[in-house]
Design brief:
34% helix; Rossmann fold; alpha/beta; pyruvate-formate lyase- activating enzyme; 14 helices; globular; single chain
């Protein structure tokens, strides 16, 4: 074990004032990064500014003196992050500033103009290598953009230690009224949906942790008193055999949990096993109930598969939330009519709808002409999927529709949810 190091590292999570509640759960990516760096005896603190509505100077006063500041960047808050970094530089001119996260991974060269270093992709290994370089006096190196390879052996990483950094409690996410702790049983996704902002980090193909590792982490949290869990995975169901093994291991723990998964993976056997293990809620990316729109989106599924999967989950007693997107290029009144006419047959418990947003790093952003996109709003603070009072960002125009049409489609979905008794996601005990 190396000796305790002198380098002081402060990891910072920014507030998101554009949304109703930005304090749903701890910043898991930063917790994982800090936990890994602490293995090498680095002095790491984590500062979660979510839930605050402070001015830049006030945020600075909450942060310590540090040799290295690490920020997880997101498109909607990037300009706020830059403003804070500028003020911190003025107050601590010798400090080094590192950006990671979705926005930095999508636009590394742009972000490198505001930061000393940019980490693209999964940062645990690369960040520790960077800290070693800084210790050797290479903190102002010309090599500013550091690209990480997707980590293949996820079992080799330590469990993100929310307790060490004091960010386990005090968050608002609930499952059946109980506070939840969040974890990842896998990383990445095999699919390449053209709208998906989970792609921007280009985390590589889906990689799984072993069922035993997942069980061990859940049991560790149970030892701290937790009984409700949320798996953050893009697709918890990507490997059926692994899903069944995890369920068999979790069943004796008598916990409750929720997952996200693709509809075509929800067969009767899987759903019954999930229910026995304590799964109470599944979020399914439906996006549209028009097969032509699903093809345009590169979704890799059909309406018939969605219908069968949702039914299997509900038959097993699991509540289902559907996520929808309106205004993907090619959307029309006809495709909207198809989707809304089929909505009642699904029998969803909950739903939420987003306007299509061309986030940096998505195919929509990189190749807009291919999709007939003629304008993207340059004000990235508007790139909000679900904001205050169900507001959203209508930030794109195509050759066939603009923000006004998408705003109308968005309202039609909400009206349909209300008429069918489908709960809006943030208004249930399974808050998004």
């Amino acid at each position: 074990m190396p000796a305790k190091r002198d380098l002081r590292i402060a990891l910072v999570n920014m507030p998101v004032p554009e949304i109703e509640d930005d304090r749903r759960q701890p910043p898991g990516g930063l917790v994982s990064l800090g936990t890994y760096a602490a293995l090498f005896q680095y002095d790491v603190t984590l500062h979660d500014l979510s839930g605050s509505r402070l001015q830049v100077g006030e945020m600075c006063s909450l942060l310590p003196e540090a040799d290295v500041f690490g920020f997880s960047t997101y498109t909607v808050t990037y300009q706020d992050t830059v403003a804070l970094v500028k003020e911190l530089r003025r107050r601590q001119p010798e400090a080094i500033f590192v950006a990671g996260g979705a926005h930095a991974s999508a636009l590394p060269d742009d972000v490198a103009r505001d930061f000393d270093f940019v980490v693209c992709g999964e940062g645990e290994h690369v960040f520790v290598d960077l800290l070693r370089r800084i210790e050797l006096g290479q903190g102002r190196s010309d090599r500013k953009v550091l690209c990480a390879e997707p980590i293949q052996d996820l079992d080799s990483l330590p469990f993100p230690d929310f307790y060490k950094f004091g960010v386990a409690d005090g968050y608002t996410r609930r499952l059946n009224g109980l506070p939840v702790i969040s974890l990842d049983s896998s990383r990445g996704c095999e699919y390449r949906c053209r709208f998906c902002n989970s792609r921007v980090s280009e985390r590589g193909k889906w990689r799984m942790r072993s069922a035993q590792s997942v069980f061990a982490e859940v049991a560790w949290h149970c030892g701290h008193g937790w009984k409700s869990f949320r798996f953050n995975d893009d697709n918890f169901l990507a490997d059926k055999d692994r899903t069944l093994r995890i369920c068999n291991l979790l069943e004796p723990l008598k916990i409750e949990f929720r997952i996200f998964g693709r509809a075509q993976s929800l067969d009767s056997e899987t759903c019954r096993s999930l229910a026995r293990a304590g799964c109470r809620h599944i979020g399914v990316g439906i996006e549209s109930l028009s097969d032509s729109m699903l093809r345009r989106m590169g979704k890799g599924t059909r309406v018939s598969q969605i219908r069968v999967g949702v039914r299997a989950a509900r038959d097993a007693g699991i509540k289902v939330r559907g996520f929808f997107i309106c205004g993907f290029p090619g959307e029309s009144e006809q495709t909207m009519d198809e989707s809304l006419e089929r909505l009642p047959d699904l029998g969803l418990d909950e739903a939420v709808v987003y306007p299509c947003i061309p986030y940096p790093g998505t195919d929509l952003f990189v190749r807009p002409q291919r999709y007939g996109i003629t304008w993207i709003d340059p004000d990235t603070s508007k790139f909000v999927q679900v904001g205050v009072n169900r507001s959203a960002g209508f930030v794109m125009r195509t050759e066939t529709f603009g923000p006004d049409e998408v705003r109308g489609w968005h309202a039609r979905y909400i009206k349909a949810f209300q008429s069918l008794g489908i709960a809006w996601s943030s208004e249930t005990e399974f808050a998004i």
